[in-house]
Write a structure and sequence with these properties.
The two termini are 37 Å apart. A hairpin with a 5-residue loop joins strand 19 and strand 20. The protein has four domains: 219 residues, FAD/NAD(P)-binding domain (3-Layer(bba) Sandwich); 118 residues, no CATH class; 129 residues; 42 residues, no CATH class. It is an alpha/beta fold and 570 residues long. It has 16 helices and 20 strands. The chain is 30% helix and 20% strand. Helix 1 runs parallel beside helix 16, helix 3 packs antiparallel against helix 4 and helix 4 packs across helix 10. 49% of the residues are buried. The strands form five sheets. Strands 1, 2, 9, 10, 11, 12 and 18 form a seven-stranded mixed β-sheet that branches. The chain has a seven-stranded mixed β-sheet with strand order 7-6-14-15-16-13-17. Bound molecules: flavin-adenine dinucleotide (FAD).
Length: 570
């Protein structure tokens, strides 16, 4: 039995690559170690709240935007309902309150009204970020073509050339005189990085313009809706998704990959299985791949990525409120609570790296859009701050829990101070750290954007999709074009398009992998309230005796909406 492609990891890039290759007729198998597809783009249920794990603001949802086009090609545009967020963000600081609106003209006006001395620089800023996206889309994907046009780059791609010379901080310092204006413009820095003086102007411009042009968006029902739609598209076109299956070895022979050995993630006593394939897409983080490879490939990859640094992670307090929190003064969807005493852009990094009790953070109020996460009359939010795994290392379980709670209480006190009364409206809260993100996505350090989007690791310097073994491809937030929802989907689509034209395919083998332990769903009954009864075919030889239980993993990703992956039968 052989698959054309095996995809390791069901994050957005893996799912998009899987759906695109399946649509073009390839026989694709996707392995995801978690019990639901999506990686960072997932939700989970708590009481009557659907808790969003990793989407706050989606960039690039615009007419002729690449992501809408990809969803269209995959036939799932109708399944994903993008809700436009009213404004980019509002910032509460020592300065007067400031709202960053959507739209370049609105942005220039808002900034120029407050800081007229820098009006010219704001126009220049808007022109540059707009140019970065427009030119970025036109940039040839082929390294050979890029080499050929290299001497003409300043003429053909002036914004990209200008951006490539700068970090965001260095560009702002060169053109904008008022430090307060820079702080207002960068209140949302943690959407990208912790340090404006390291953040690539190219990467920043690419994403920022994707928010400016047609506004930032949220997905009704949460990001799981998108992941499920991608998974559904892949299955509809004949692809196979195995959840709860972890790739533990990439088999290589004569300098090529030939298969994957996988193991059940939840029952390690089961024997591993090896499946052959023509080629592989690694959606899992590249730093995890050497452990799956034989020498000399493992060492070659380690060497290649040894100097790369990881992006930030997030500390999240997921919040369920028993009411709409607008009444407590929460005005915006993204409410940036800036630390007291920031005077210049140079203070941003020390603050985000510093004391928890003073760190700037964001409160997202999903209730400002038709988010479909909370029941009528209630609302959902999340507190989000930059986080580093180093802060959580060397703690035993008790110490870790206690520290998590201590830090959470600091932030809850600060939202209460900003929005008096809000604390009493909290019906549910749960805390996730970089360690939690690492645990559920396997991304080292809980990195949310793969490799840090620094000047040295972005644009043409970003890790490419195919550099180690001819038929081993990489597609994730860690690779070109970068991290985030939009970029990861584009990475998945680009890799599939490239693979389709590469010489990496052999004769088709029709046999499918069958897990003998899969049992058929025979009935589904919705009861009053929110419970659903599922009936399954009895596995061969299964005889129920008192005290025994069976663990069922639901195979159809759409069923994960129930959030009932495992239930005891007795
Ligand atoms: C809390 C949070 C907030 C965020 N907010 C935003 C936002 O507002 N806007 C935005 O654009 N981006 C945001 N992001 C970033 C964005 O979600 C990610 O950059 C993007 O979803 C990553 O996609 P990916 O394809 O790299 O895969 P990942 O999501 O990293 O998934 C990789 C998958 O591979 C699987 N895997 C790993 N190893 C194996 C193995 N050996 N075998 C099988 N499977 C394996 C993992 O289980 C995982 O599901 C946020 C992320 C987080 C965590």
């Amino acid at each position: 039995m052989k698959y054309d492609t095996i995809i390791i990891g069901g994050g957005l890039a893996g799912l998009t690559a899987g759906a695109t290759l399946s649509k073009s007729g390839k026989k694709v198998l996707l392995l995801e170690r978690h019990h639901k597809p999506g990686g960072c783009a997932t939700t989970f249920k708590r009481g009557d709240f659907i808790v969003e794990v990793g989407l706050h603001e989606f960039s690039g949802i615009m007419e002729n935007g690449t992501v809408p086009l990809i969803l269209d090609i995959l036939g799932i545009s109708e399944e994903v309902d993008f809700q436009q967020i009213p404004e980019f963000y509002g910032i509460y600081s020592d300065r007067s309150q400031f709202v960053v609106p959507h739209g370049y003209d609105n942005l220039i006006k808002a900034l120029s009204d407050k800081y007229p001395e820098d009006a010219k620089a704001f126009r220049r800023f808007a022109k540059l970020v707009d140019g970065i996206r427009k030119e970025g889309v036109r940039l040839p994907a082929s390294p050979l073509k890029l080499k050929l046009i290299y001497p003409l780059m300043p003429l053909m791609f002036p914004s990209l050339v200008e951006a490539s010379k700068h970090t965001l901080g260095s560009w702002l310092d060169k053109h904008i005189t008022n430090e307060n204006a820079k702080l207002d413009l960068l209140g949302h820095i943690s959407w990208w990085s912790d340090d404006p003086y390291k953040l690539s102007m190219f990467y920043f411009g690419l994403v920022f313009s994707g928010y400016m042009e047609n506004g930032a968006h949220f997905i009704k029902g949460g990001s799981q809706t998108l992941s499920d739609a991608l998974a559904g598209s892949m299955e509809k076109h004949g692809g196979t998704i195995l959840l709860g299956k972890q790739a533990e070895k990439i088999i290589t022979r004569n300098g090529k990959v030939t298969g994957v050995t996988l193991r059940d993630s939840f029952n390690k006593s089961l024997d591993p299985v090896t499946i052959s394939c023509d080629n592989i897409v690694a959606n899992l983080a590249p730093p995890l791949v050497p452990a799956l490879l034989d020498e000399p490939h493992a060492n070659a990859l380690k060497q290649k990525i040894s100097s790369y640094t990881r992006s930030i992670s997030f500390f999240c307090i997921y919040l369920g409120f028993n009411t709409d929190v607008t009444k407590y003064g929460v005005k915006y969807y993204s409410n940036v609570i800036e630390a007291e005493g920031l005077k210049s852009l140079k203070d941003v990094y020390p603050n985000l790296k510093g004391d928890w009790s003073k760190r700037s953070f964001v409160l997202i109020d999903y209730g400002k859009v038709d988010a479909g996460l909370a029941p009528a009359g209630k609302s959902e939010g999340v507190v989000l701050a930059v986080d580093y795994i180093e802060d959580w290392e060397n703690l035993n379980e008790e110490e870790y829990k206690a520290k998590k709670e201590e830090v959470a209480q600091m932030f809850l006190e600060r939202i209460e101070k900003q929005f008096p009364g809000i604390r009493d409206a909290i019906e549910y809260y749960e805390v996730g750290t970089s360690k939690t993100i690492q645990k559920y996505t396997s991304n080292p350090g809980g990195s949310v954007f793969g490799y840090a989007p620094t000047k040295e690791q972005s644009g043409l310097n970003r890790l490419r999709d195919n550099f180690l073994i001819p038929n081993l491809y990489f597609a994730s937030a860690w690779t070109f074009p970068g991290g985030g929802f939009e970029a990861s989907i584009i990475a998945g689509f680009m890799v599939a398009s490239k693979m389709n034209t590469d010489k990496i395919w052999s004769e088709r083998d029709a046999e499918e992998y069958r897990d003998a332990r899969i049992v058929k769903l025979t009935g589904r009954k919705e009861n009053a309230g929110s419970s659903i009864e599922l009936s399954f075919e009895k596995p061969k030889g299964f005889k129920h005796e008192k005290g025994q239980h069976a663990i069922l993993t639901l195979m159809n990703p759409k069923v994960t909406k129930l959030d009932l992956p495992y239930r005891r039968l007795s």
